[in-house]
Design goal:
Number of helices: 9
Strand content: 5-15%
Radius of gyration: 22 Å
Shape: elongated
Bound molecules: zinc ion
Largest sheet: 6 strands, parallel
Length: 245
């Protein structure tokens, strides 16, 4: 082999080694950035599903001007505390509802300002959107209140940012799928959730569509009625963790 050929071979080997190292670094980076939050979510859900005798009703994406007030009225009638993860831009549009949430016995948290999927935006946008939610909802939400990522998707940058400010990040154990167009009977859905030992139910409180709004209200009533019949205590997320009502 000539000297020129062997130098070229060494050069090619170095390029491939560089590519390999870059791919490994990229893979590790992606795993840490996106995969680690998924693992943490899995651990949290497993921990919550081991809790017995408690049920937390949670409502995302509000406040709106129709469904949120209807839900507040129903929860008041039922005498049940719940947890609301609010979206900043809707809070700004519905300031009166935000203030009535603040005055209510319910627990509040944030759900970003613009409600974007963190996996479809840059990590920096998602981080600043999550922080922005605390500013735009500051009329009702305290700096230490919990954060729930939209669509359950987040990155380590946002998680670390939340932890540095002493904020919990909450997911859920079961989704009611109330953003779909057709639903099973609310009584049947509630029974299945309780049979499965679910402890954190995700619903939404921003529906413009009357059939979705009706489903959320009916499912809420069914869950409360059936949980009480089974001796299950209805709690906020703080209550589920054992440090609040
Ligand atoms: Zn949401």
């Amino acid at each position: 082999m000539s000297t020129a050929v062997s130098i070229a071979a060494i050069g090619a080997a170095q390029i491939w080694a560089g590519v390999l190292i870059a791919l490994v670094v990229f893979g590790v980076g992606v795993s840490v950035l996106y995969g680690l939050p998924l693992a943490m979510r899995w651990v949290q859900v497993r921990r919550w599903k081991r809790i017995k005798g408690k049920l937390a009703l949670t409502y995302d994406d509000g406040p709106d001007e129709v469904t949120t007030p209807a839900l507040l009225e129903l929860l008041g009638e039922l005498g049940v505390p719940a947890t609301f993860y609010l979206v900043g831009f809707r809070g700004e549009k519905n300031r009166e509802i935000l203030e009535s949430l603040k005055a209510s016995p319910h627990e509040l948290g944030t759900h970003t300002h613009w409600h974007k999927n963190a996996w479809k935006k840059s990590p920096w946008f998602s981080y600043s959107d999550a922080m922005h939610g605390y500013e735009s909802l500051s009329v009702a939400v305290e700096p230490g209140d919990a954060f729930r990522p939209p669509f359950g998707k987040t990155t380590m940058i946002t998680l670390i940012g939340m932890w540095l400010k002493g904020r919990m990040v909450h997911w859920w154990t079961v989704a009611a799928n109330d953003t779909r167009d057709s639903f099973d009977e609310p009584e049947k859905v509630a029974k299945q959730m309780l049979d499965d030992g679910e402890t954190v139910v995700l619903m939404h409180c921003h529906h413009n569509e009357s059939h979705r709004r009706a489903y959320v209200l009916d499912l809420t009533r069914a869950l409360v009625t059936q949980a009480r019949a089974r001796g299950i205590e209805l709690v906020t997320m703080g209550g589920l963790e054992g440090d609040k009502r």
